[in-house]
Amino acid sequence: MPKRLLHFFLFWACLAGSAGSGAVSVKPQEVLDLHYGEVLFHFYQNDYFTAITHLLAAQQQNQLPHHRQEAELLLAGLELSYGMLDQAQARFERLLDQDTDRELRNRVWYYITRIAYQRGRHQQALETLKKIDKPRDRNMRAELALLNANLLMETGQNAEAADVLKHASVPERWKDYLRINRGIALLRAGKIREGQAILDKLGDQRADNEELRALRDRANLGLGYELLRKGDAEQARKYLNRVRLQGPFMQAALLGAGWADTERGDFEQALTPWLALMKLSGHDAPVQEVHLAVPYAFSKIGDNQRAKYFYKQALDFYDREQQYLADAIQAARSGALVALLSQTDNDPETSGGWLNEPPTLENVPSGRYLVDILSGHPFQETLKDYRDLDYLEQLLRNWLKNIGLYHDMVEARRLAYEQRAPRVRQRMEKQEAAALRQRWQHFQDLIQAEHRNGDPLHLATSKEKQQWKTLQEVQEKLAALPAEPRYRKMQQRARWLQGTLYWQIQSDYRARLRNAENQVRELDTLTGEAVTRHTQVNDALADIKAGFDGFDTRIEALRQRILALLPRIDMARRDAGKQLQKLALKELETRRQRLSSYRLQARYALARSYDQVSQQPGVSGDGAQQ
Amino acid sequence: MKALLRGILTGLLIWPLLLAAETAAPPEKGISDDVQTLKQEVLELNRDLFLLEEELLFPSNTQISIFVSMNVGEFFKLDSVKLKIDGKEVADYLYTQRELEALARGGVQRIYIGNLRTGDHELVAFFVGKGPHDRDYKRGTTMTINKGLGPKYVELRIVDQTSNFQPEFEVREW
Description:
The structure holds two protein chains of two kinds. Chain A has 24 helices and no strands. By secondary structure, chain A is mainly alpha-helical. In chain A, 36% of the residues are buried.
């Protein structure tokens, strides 16, 4: 495979959404077939559907003689970008063999593996992963190690995942990513000490940029919660304290820090992070949980008044949140959410696809609950399918309208043909071209005869022929007169004139013959063309009619294909819509159940508080209820 | 109260403790497979419809296509292209940034497709944009094209001329 093809493909691969590690600066593609350039024009604008259509059309019409191989490779890449993973994989399997550049092969299989992984096709991903053969690019090695580890963890092989990450040889800037994943894999594999040692080191190191700081927070949070689950509250608090209060993991860290304090019996201390957390926005799970945790801590330190106050506040809070959730569930059930997302960010220049910007969800009741679901890969994948199908349906409906017009157009042309064809046919029947050809043949024969036994008089001009004839007549008349000297003199004079005329004609004879030959030769071409055109028109008269019938058949066949596809697309779109609804409702239902559970526990705890107060000497039941 | 604590701790477990492992359920494979198959079928159908449309609207004997391409484009930032054939305006195209980037990477835009009789025709193209030193720049180029039997392809090419740091506008018949 040519080197420039490799560069081009790597360029494509980078565009197709790599982590940016393998960015390659590439000169513009040299285009040797205009139609190939046209495909690239759409491809570079991420309009994959149009690019594939143009490429398939150009291939069918043999318009890519100089880019045959690249076109196939590009097609596979376009299919991959357009979400046709299986077709792309099959095409790549045909195109990439052992002769193909190893780096190119590796990058192709890496992308297929990654997409299969993102789609949850772990078995397929594991299969394609095996095709990657020791990449030379160290950035790619790092990406590959992470992908491999994730796949192994997905299939429960946590120790193996840790092992892969341990032995990967990667550039310095990738090492922290591999370490955190290795730490997590070790914890999952039950190797707590080893995992803790790695995450501890990672969580304590200096971070120069936001990405690394966030990574450090993740390590500390993960380790803190894991230790909390194992019952080591002291250590857990230490790691949770390291999480920044400005970072994205602050809420979870504050909640966990409070629970670590309560595990150690220090309920007063727990109130510090929890009260801070309580002031924050209400839809995040840690904030919801802390509304129950705060009164619990007050009750544990014996401050029942505050405990009751916060339990009541928690009940009000949960009631409000449950109402918001009910609205969100209703929005998801009614289809409003899916309808909004299908229309959001629709670029008329491109064909469906991913949302380019996160949706505002302003028009969806309690849309804030859906933010987490929307960002999830399963939802995004299904949403892309839904939007693609929406585009395909619109496209086919437009074609259906147009194809009716094309049918009318063919009808109009047929009518025009039927009106004009008889006149043309009538004229054709006169065989004018054949008659012309015959006349040419006659001239041709004359020329040939001249060559055999040339007579200059045959090529005399009309005037010369007239003069010759006059002189002949004069001589005949003179011959009938008496043989007198004056008549003989006149006869001599006439013969001399005739001789002079003949001499003039004869002296021009060769030039005249050449000229005549040239003219006959020209006529040969012209009359030959006339005969050919006659045949062409004759054929065209028959072909046009057959062409109309051919268009009719094609149009009808295409119409039937459209009609057959539309209900299938509609059904698939509905299925994708239902799937989106299901994913949204599943998440919302989980949240609803969690809120119900919190609310129930708050009510139960509040009732117990009242019971305790009412059982105290000197307090009546009515007073307790107040 | 221990029960309450246990309940809350159960709530805690809902948390993604191991944050790196994003193990959300994948979309149902059946839907994904159906969508892939449908995409394949629609693409093939769209190709056939596209070819039918071209054959009907622009039969090959009269078809003419004008393409625009660019190499590098450092000395000229294209805003629009206007095309006239035999004195009649047939295209006036304003470019988006995304289209300009696609052209700069080697993409070729078909700016016009239409029908012409066989014989000679005058093609005039005006390129409007920003030239060297960000100056307004408008250049026209004229050529006679001969339309024979079969489709005619003409490429308008914007080329950076490093010898004089000026853009050049070439017309090439294919």
